[in-house]
Design brief:
This protein is α+β, with helices and mostly antiparallel strands and about 210 residues long. The chain contains four helices and nine strands. The protein is elongated and about 115 Å long.
Length: about 210
């Protein structure tokens, strides 16, 4: 009987330990997921009017403008776009992201800085443990075993107001136009009131055209 009680107490203890671990894992994932969404929303909004958004302690997301171009092989014109890149060297806090959090949380600069630092810590931890994080509407940030970052932006997610609605289109090249000259026949001049001098000029012009192969 005492042995059975010992097994029973051990099973309950293991169950409670697993339950607590699962709860902690859920809380951790929930914080990470919320941090991802919130941070991505701030970056997306800021990139609409700024070419660079620095996440202190992580890196900078930089927007590169690409002019409209023509793909001659496919006869397609591509509209101008903005492509998002990531620079891990840009870690200095320039205040832009913090000010965005200040406006949302209605708080001061120092408090908003602490909020951003906490969000970034969740992201860095997830990068080191999972190897990648997903920033909705921005892209996927990966962290290698060599300590380097690789960023894959999502296509057509970051929109610029003045580029909104522009799409690619196809246009066919025009065929080369050749000038066609009609050589009048002598009977075309019958009944025309032409003086001899003017008629001679026309006949010379006709002979010249014939000599050129028309």
């Amino acid at each position: 009987m005492p042995l059975e009680n010992a097994f029973s107490r051990g099973s309950v203890y293991n169950f409670l330990v697993r339950k607590k671990a699962l709860k902690l894992a859920y809380i951790r994932y929930f914080r990470y997921f919320c941090s991802m969404i919130e941070l991505a929303q701030h970056i997306e909004i800021l990139l609409l009017e700024n070419d660079c958004v620095i996440v202190p302690g992580l890196g900078g997301f930089v927007a590169h403008y690409t002019s409209a171009m023509r793909v001659a092989e496919e006869n397609i014109f591509l509209p101008p776009t903005r492509i998002i890149g990531f620079n891990p060297q840009l870690k200095m806090n320039d205040g832009l992201l913090v000010q965005s959090y200040m406006a949302v949380y209605d708080t001061d600069f120092s408090d908003a800085t602490r909020i951003v630092e906490k969000k970034v810590s969740y992201i860095v931890t997830a990068l080191h443990e999972e190897g990648k994080v997903d920033l909705p509407n921005i892209g996927e940030l990966r962290y290698s075993i060599h300590g380097t970052y690789d960023f894959a932006p999502y296509d057509h997610k970051i929109t610029t107001p003045y580029l909104y609605g522009l799409d690619s289109f196809e246009i066919q090249e025009l065929a080369e136009q050749k000038n066609i000259f009609l050589i009048p026949d002598e009977k075309d001049f019958e009944g025309m009131l032409l003086d001899d001098g003017y008629k001679d000029e026309i006949e010379k012009a006709i002979e010249q055209l014939k000599g050129e192969g028309y």
